[in-house]
Amino acid sequence: MQIPMVDLKGQYETLRQEIEAGFRTVLETTHFILGPQGKALEEEVAAYCGVRHAIGVASGTDALHLALRAAGIGEGDEVITTPFTFIATAEAISYVGGRPVFVDIDPLTFNIDVELIEAAITDRTRAILPVHLFGQPADLAPIRELCRKHGLRLIEDCAQSFGAEYGDRRSGAYGELGCFSFFPSKNLGCYGDGGMIVTDDDRLAEEVRVYRNHGSRERYHHSVIGYNSRLDELQAVVLRAKLKHLDGYNEQRRRNAHRYTARLQGTKVTPPAEDGKGLHVYHQYTVLSDARDAIHQALTAAGIASAVYYPIPLHRQEVYRELYAGVSMPVAESVAKRVLSLPMFPELTEAQIDRVCDVILGAL
Ligand SMILES: *Cc1c(COP(=O)(O)O)cnc(C)c1O
Q: What CATH number belongs to 9-243?
């Protein structure tokens, strides 16, 4: 039995009629960019997240970049974030001339350790950028308290957490700006690149709309240097079709995760922890084990995919090495050596989960 990390075919097959009909409408009207599909999607995502504004952009990386710019982060400004994330989180800070300040993570949730944040705040700190890694929101209440106390912006990297909840709010709705990725394998994914920014703030929303469209408020009038970063109409068709089913997909991910956990509990493999502060939507199902490499090899030999997200924390990446020479983040470094993500997608079957667990237990 071959088992991939992600299988996108199941959703395409069940939604194909709706998606293909939507594609045909876009093709026949030849309105490809900033048209009615994108506008409808923005309204639907804003309603889903419980915020006033959602603005489509070209990728999750651009969502972070434009959010930081709209928030006024610039040359020399420090932004506190986690070293245990995808590079795009830190890249976006560097794009605007800012400096990513990494704070070590919590060993159970893999999210930024809120106890360590305050000591990293300086008079150049302008924002905190938590990442909701693997689909579980970072501990946002104490982070927002720190932002209030020190006058900082709170920007959420929600690339892996569409539909997750913290307290009674959806991920993205807690900070001033929430940034989503619609990369195909994300919980809500399109058929190319795409992203979105959500906010309750009218002024920030307006800034993002201007930046995504060449710094233009009025056609051919340009007040600032902006970008070409729009979500196109064909991608909006795919996302609108999937959004209607997203809660069900996330529920399936949770059910799959709980089946894995029931099988792996009490073994030498540590299942992921839910912190009980909201809803974890399991973008990834990531275990910890000292025997990580042996498990990975056994799974590979059995035709089962598994992956290390992420093998090198960002403060150890070549691009940031000089900034962080001699700085140690012991938890992130230790976790990077022991994590392994297992196949996870809504359509994964019980038989597939059992097979993955059998191979893991056989390897221990
Ligand atoms: C995927 C991802 C991004 C970037 O999104 P793209 O759409 O690929 O640009 C940013 N941050 C995190 C945590 C991600 O997982």
A: 3.40.640.10
